[in-house]
Amino acid sequence: MAYDRDALFELIKVELESDAHLSLTDLSRRIHVGRHTLSKAVKDAAGLSFRAFRSRQLLGQAKVLLGNSPQGSIKEIAFEMGYGSQRALARFIKKQTSLQTRNFRQTIVHSDRLYDRARHSTRRNRDYRNVSSGSLPMVIAGTSVDIRLFMLSSTSSGT
């Protein structure tokens, strides 16, 4: 049976948003599509294995929850994300980012501030052309952090 891989990928994203800890086998059973087909759809659309994509989705959810409540309890966030303990969430974040949970939270808050400053300064600067937004890997205190910045394209700098 042929599937529309884009539509299938969108369905996978929706299912993972409702249950981010869903295994490939459980997802396959839930939507009645073979594991191989699901895995191939994720690989084609995201360029990642199902497990890596699911981890990326979970990390994104953690970024949102930790960033939206900078003073909130990590334990409550862990339970909200479906982890059995604060420690389980901490292990996941450490494995994905090499950062402790509190440091991960600080980089989220810090990167949002940098993003806001960059966006604000770009608006004031009347000399820009072809400004593009992107995700730029940046090193802060020896750790790799994903910081959203507005960058001037090479055409506006004359190179």
Protein described:
This protein is of the alpha+beta class. The protein has 2 domains: 5-97, Homeodomain-like (Arc Repressor Mutant, subunit A); 115-152, no CATH class. 60% of the residues lie in helices and 13% in strands. The chain contains 7 helices and 2 strands, in the order αααααααββ. It has helices at residues 5-18, 24-31, 35-46, 50-68, 74-80, 86-97, 101-124; strands at residues 131-140, 143-152. The protein has a two-stranded antiparallel sheet. β1 (131-140) and β2 (143-152) form a beta hairpin. α1 (5-18) crosses α3 (35-46). It is elongated and about 50 Å long. Residues 122-159 have low confidence and may be disordered.
List keywords for this structure.
Arc Repressor Mutant, subunit A, 159 residues, two-stranded antiparallel ribbon, 7 helices, alpha+beta, elongated, 2 domains
What structural category do the secondary elements indicate? alpha+beta
CATH class of the largest domain: Mainly Alpha
CATH architecture assignment of the largest domain:
Orthogonal Bundle
Largest beta sheet, briefly?
2 strands, antiparallel
Summarize the structure.
This protein has 159 residues and is of the alpha+beta class. The chain folds into 2 domains: 5-97, Arc Repressor Mutant, subunit A, CATH 1.10.10; 115-152, no CATH class. It is built from 7 helices and 2 strands.
How would you summarize the topology of this molecule?
Layout: H1 5-18, H2 24-31, H3 35-46, H4 50-68, H5 74-80, H6 86-97, H7 101-124, E1 131-140, E2 143-152
Antiparallel strand pairs: 1-2
Helix pairs in contact: 1-3, 5-6
